[in-house]
Amino acid sequence: MQAIGNFIAGRIVEPAGGRYLDNVDPATGKTYSQVPHSDARDVQAAVEAAREAFPAWAAAPAEQRSAILLRIADLIERSLEQFAMAECIDNGKPLTRCRTVDIPRAIKNFRFFATAILHARSDLHATDREALNYTLRQPRGVCGLISPWNLPLYLLTWKVAPALATGNTAVAKPSEITPMTAHLLAQVCVEAGLPAGVLNIVHGEGPTAGAALVAHPQVSTISFTGGTQTGAEVARVAAPMFKKLSLELGGKNPNVVFADADIEQALSVSVQAAFANQGQICLCGSRLLVERSIFDDFVGRFVEKTRALTVGDPLDASTDQGAMVSKVQWMKTQNCVSLARDEGGAVRCGGRLPETMSERCAQGYFYMPTAITGLGVDCRTNQEEIFGPVVTLIPFDDERQAVELANATEYGLSASVWTRSLNRAHRVAERIEAGVVWVNCWLLRDLRTPFGGMKRSGVGREGGEEALRFFTEAKNVCVKLPGEQQGANL
Ligand code: TXE
To answer: Which of the chain's ends, N or C, has fewer CB atoms near its CB within 10 Å?
Structure first.
């Protein structure tokens, strides 16, 4: 069975303790590879390598760093099929999605930040005729990059690309559930000529490898994407050490449909927003709020469209819904649906395992896309993130109530608003408590825009300028112009 290794100082190496974790293909339920069960020793070696590589990488001209990152993008693109297949088997998501969304986005992440640094500018503040203040943006050193399993290479590279582009070195800790494309990335980095130690990858579990990375005194910057509870633990350790911290956490995102919307469009995008990636995207619209005058009709048509989704083998081109990522996530989803039933919810479709699966997938973690009505906003089903193919539909009476219901959770990551009224779109977008609001669309991403959450969905923003700022230290240099100093202007 294939055993993957850590990537430290430019080489693929075994974990110091020689221990491995099973890596399961969720479509078959079978272990198909081994992933290092790394500990603090592996993190130590990786941080040392990253520290050693830092001065030269930080001093390299932007054009040189850019060229290497562009080569990484080209090499991923050359092996797109291999990367897509690896992601599909590791995660259970449809191969078609890996080919058209996950891997292309990883390539874009590298290209975007590799070229962004060629156009970066910095500020100058002229203090009358007395002084010039200019802002240096300097790399911060070794960054710890911790990513989840739902969009493995997509989210890992969303951190790696800006961290490296701005001249930092990094130790990445991908999810132990989906390590394979990170392993392929390591091989690509070597081929692209990335100097040894600039990117290191340590595989393993959160409480061991991840926690050691967060607690390491030489890691000055932590970028984390994952569950809200884990984010709180990361902050608890990192904050007293004065680390710079970015937390992208969970969501319970409202998708608000007004009666004046283009209903056809709202319907088909809402189905995608609820179930794409088996509902395992932090941006999924998991609470569908629909104006009461169209509620019954909308629910009926939504259920019809949901029933038309094909749950099947992720390798099959006709599959819309693949396997859930792990047995744990699959069981959690089943428990959440039984909780919804206990809370009085009416399961309108799904709420069960598929009846027939191919022989290959008979032991896989598949679940039917599920729509639930009849639940109030305060129940656990409408408050807690499920992170599976489950959506609730809730009616509202007017705009005021729509906003109130949209904001009635502790999360604040994203929202969608469907209406033909421009005035209403602006009003509602302004009032919704979320870091990202889409009007008449969902998951339309421009990599230049700020991305992140409010409330329990996180702290800080990624994307574009925000990422370039996060991964650099702003230093003001004040240069006196010729002439007498007028006095210290405090
Ligand atoms: O995430 P974790 P899990 C949510 C979703 C899901 C829940 C749990 O609700 O059901 O989180 O999923 C590493 N110190 N999201 O358990 O545990 C871990 O190894 C340092 C939303 O997979 O947060 C992995 O690399 N690191 C989310 C990463 O953190 C630690 C996407 C995320 O794992 C650690 C995924 C620790 N103490 C899950 N403990 C989104 N918003 O996109 C774990 N890790």
So the answer is: C
Count of alpha carbons within 13 angstroms of residue 293, beta-carbon side? 8
CB 26 within 8 A of CB 324: yes
Active-site residue, from 248, 291, 462, 466: 248
Say whether 223 sits in a helix, a strand or coil. strand
pLDDT tens per residue, range 384-427: 999 999 999 999 999 999 999 999 999 999 999 999 999 999 99
CA 264–ligand 1 middle distance (angstroms): 35
Q: CB neighbours (10 Å) of residue 444?
A: 12
Q: Is 282 a catalytic residue?
A: yes
Q: Is 477 helix (H, G, I), strand (E, B) or coil?
A: strand
Nearest CA to ligand 1 atom 11: 227
With a 6 Å cutoff on the Cβ, whether 230 touches ligand 1 is yes
Q: How far is the CA of 20 from the centre of ligand 1 (A)?
A: 19
pTM, entire model? 0.96
Q: How far apart are CA 378 and CA 394, in angstroms?
A: 12
The values of phi and psi at residue 482, to 5°, are: -55, 145
The atom of ligand 1 lying closest to the CA of 227 is: 11
Question: Is ligand 1 within 6 A of the CB of residue 144?
Answer: no
Other beta carbons less than 10 A from residue 452's beta carbon: 23
Dist CA 70 CA 250 (whole Å): 31
Spatial distance between the Cα atoms of 283 and 255, rounded to a whole number of angstroms:
10
Per-residue pLDDT tens digits for 24-64: 999 999 999 999 999 999 999 999 999 999 999 999 999 99
Q: Whose CA is closest to atom 27 on ligand 1?
A: 226
pLDDT of 483 over the 90 cut: no
Interval between CA 174 and ligand 1 midpoint (Å):
10
Cα–Cα distance, 438 to 255 (Å, whole number): 9
Mean pLDDT over the full length of the chain? 97
Dist. CA 159–CA 161, nearest whole Å: 6
The pLDDT of residue 484: 78
| Ligand 1 atom with least separation from CA of 413 | 41
Cβ atoms within 10 Å of 233's Cβ, excluding its own? 17
Closest CA to 314 of 150, 84, 147: 84
Q: For residues 46, 203, 207 and 390, what is the CA-based torsion angle, rounded to 10 degrees?
A: 140
β-pairing verdict for 414-418 and 169-173: unpaired
pLDDT tens figures, 83-92: 999 999 999 9
Q: Where are the beta strands (DSSP E) in 242-286?
A: 244-248, 254-257
Report whether 468 contacts 474 (CB < 8 A): no
Residues 6+ apart with CB under 8 A from 478: 127, 131, 132, 133
- Decide: 156 in ligand 1 pocket, CB within 6 A: no
